[in-house]
Amino acid sequence: MAFLKLKGSLGTAVALSAVLLSPLAVAEPTMAQLEKQLNDRNAALLKMQNRVQQQDAAIRDLQGRVQDLSDRLSALEKGGAKPQAPAANPAADQTAKPEPAAAPEAPAPEPKKASGDPKKLYENAFAQVRDNDLQKAEAGFLELIKDYPDSDLVPNSYYWLGQIYYKQKQYQKSRENFLNVTKYKNCSKRADSIYKLGAIEELLKNPDKAKKFYQVVINSYKGSTEAVLAQKALDRLK
Question: Which of 30, 61, 152, 198 is least crowded, fewest Cβ atoms below 10 Å from its Cβ?
């Protein structure tokens, strides 16, 4: 009887151990899960960046108006020259006005870019990425970089171009764009760009170069998702 109780207790213990230990086997996130978490985080950061950039644009516009008014007031206070109306011509007034001569054809003015165009371009291109319409997304990001080289959205545009070319296995183009991202020290996508550079070198059979990029991510972005991925890649290459 005691033996049966002991046997039953052992069976219960084994079952409990299996239940307690089974989560450990699946607790560690997979690469795909980590990448999904990264993409989710990047999407949240993008929304936040868009809001901040929109607010910054409004502030810059107000600052410009205030500065313009200040300049005008300063000019009036200093007795600056005022614009004069053209002198009247009585003789011309008494006679019929001649038909105006045809003005020479002026060159077509360049289209004015409305405020907020870079943001709209970026959002449209990013939406194309989500819809997997990579050709239109590529065109949108390239247009933004060309027409608005000083925009805060240029680093992110380089990043998504790198991702597009990476997915298309155009690794040289992908590398060029990720390298451009690394020039922007405060870009939120800089860590992932360096990691992707390591992945590209690994795909191109350059393991030594890949290790260097992975090590930079580990050293510069300790505790980040990218550092975790880089450490796994580095361990794999050892």
Answer: 30
Owner of token pair 């049966």: 4
Distance separating alpha carbons of residues 174 and 128, to the nearest angstrom: 18
Helix (H) or strand (E) holding 172: helix 171-182
Instruction: Pull the structure tokens for residue 180.
Output: 């451009």
Query: For residues 168 and 135, what is the distance between their CA atoms, to the nearest angstrom?
Result: 11
The letter for the amino acid at 75 is: A
CA angle 210, 164, 132 (to 5 degrees): 140
8 A C-beta contact, residue 225 and residue 38: yes
8 A C-beta contact, residue 160 and residue 129: yes
What is the C-alpha separation between 226 and 56, in angstroms, rounded? 29
Tell me the per-residue pLDDT of 8-67, one tens digit each, with 9 for 90 and over: 444 444 444 443 344 433 344 555 566 677 677 767 766 776 676 666 666 666 666 656
Query: Does the reported pTM lie above 0.85?
Result: no
